[in-house]
Amino acid sequence: MNTLRTAMLLAAMTALFMGVGYLIGGSGGMVIALLIAAGMNLFSYWNADKMVLSMHRAVEVDERNAPEYYAIVQSLARQAGLPMPKTYLIDNPQPNAFATGRNPQNAAVAATTGLLQQLSPEEVAAVMAHELAHVQHRDTLTMTIVATLAGAISMLGNFAFFFGGNRDSNNPFGFVGVLVAMIVAPFAAMIVQMAISRTREYEADRRGAEIAGNPLWLASALDKIACGAERIRNPDAERNPATAHLFIINPLSGERMDSLFSTHPNTDNRIAALQAMARDMAVGGGSAQSRPQAPMPDQAGDQQPSGPWEQAAQQPEQPAAQPARPKSNPWGRNPTGPKGPWS
How far is residue 329 CA from its own chain's centroid? Predict the structure, then answer.
């Protein structure tokens, strides 16, 4: 189903690209747009994840330079039955995270330093479980290709002023066509993004809560991330608004028309859905047998958990009515550990 959806998305984006090319340059522009779109589709399939990570200046980390963060992702991947994804950090104070990659075998997850600084280990685990849910559902290929092609369509619309207003152009609609291309292209790209975004976020929330073991962890994390995103600008996201749908919470400030690329469901609705899920699972209430246990990948053996999230998972759960207030920075001064890439 996801393969068919991705193929339909690529076809729609290609047709949209060709339409904008026709408005700008007539039949010649349409042919050029077709060739560009074909090349971009092929390139995006293999390299869109690398492009997105580069746009946000993500740095790959491992157990040596980000031991706590890496241990959380490793534990969650094992719990979800997924290959260990490549793990990236983004030196950005805004709390946020995203996943990318064409399939689970070539997936990557990225978190900002702000996420690790402002959230508790349990909340970080819930956020990364949400991102791994996208990987498991194979959303990442579609999401990443949309980010690349939508950005290209928006740039094509912006370039229309420079290349479409020429009197000698083959554009059959003249300057009106140029204006239509400038206005319609970003909106059309936004509509395509919206068509694939809202349902998958709810599904990733649900599956992420199952992987992490407690829906309230993710509900608390979403609230903190949404508040942080309102207060703290993300310059890289503002420069590349077509990647906004990749993040767990919209990273854009809304200062410009870039806010139109917001494709996330209302955060309050997502939190309410997670709270309802917690009630259904009897988290924080009912008998001990009815409470879901936090995932412990090594519980079948005699090994002791080593990661900070695994240790936190053994602690008694707080009642839902009075959740514990986690420390503002449980990782210390450097969220990646003493040997982090920015030490």
Answer: 23
